[in-house]
Amino acid sequence: MRPFFGLLSDKEADFFLDRMEKDEADDIKQLLTYKQGSAGALMTTDVVTVTGSDSVADVLYRLRHSESDAETIYYLYVTDTGNQLTGVVTLRELIASDPQRRMDEIMNPQWISVSADTGQSEVLQIIRKYGLLAVPVVTHKGTLLGIVTFDDVLFNL
């Protein structure tokens, strides 16, 4: 999204943003505040989050029947009520788990993350080093902001 809006004048960008749904326009405005080439500028905020108390069956039902805005679902991010990242669940783990198990029972409580100001080349190094398909972007307090996928990094080099 940033490359498109980055090519526009402020007046042209405002023209398009004024015609978008408020939530989507607010997301784009927030992303435009991050330095170009940073994880914040590359990330998507459309992330699938679950709570630790959600059951596997409930999450699978939600994924199958809801209209998720997430363009890519490689991992499910377990967050608390303050949107603090507490763990990560792979789709493979979700599918292979007993439907009655809870997310906090199958999540990995140790995860790799980056901050919004992490540079693009460092994000790519982290994704390569750990073999990730996506990396969460968090604040210094652990609040989940979004994710950067491997293709976001590669296509923006």
SSE diagram, text form:
Layout: H1 2-6, H2 10-18, H3 22-31, H4 39-42, E1 49-50, H5 56-65, E2 75-79, E3 85-90, H6 91-96, H7 103-106, H8 120-130, E4 134-138, E5 144-149, H9 150-155
Parallel strand pairs: 1-2
Antiparallel strand pairs: 2-3, 4-5
Domain CBS: 43-105, 107-157
InterPro entries: CBS_dom, CBS_dom_sf, MgtE_transporter
Protein name: CBS domain-containing protein
Commentary on this structure:
The chain has nine helices and five strands, in the order ααααβαββαααββα. The radius of gyration is 16 Å and the shape is globular. The longest helix has 11 residues. It is an alpha+beta fold. It folds into two domains: 32 residues, no CATH class; 113 residues, CBS-domain, CATH 3.10.580.10. The chain starts with a helix and ends with a helix. The strands form two sheets. It has a three-stranded mixed beta sheet with strand order 1-2-3. It comes from Paenibacillus elgii. Keywords: CBS domain. GO terms for molecular function: magnesium ion transmembrane transporter activity. This is CBS domain-containing protein. It holds the Pfam family CBS.
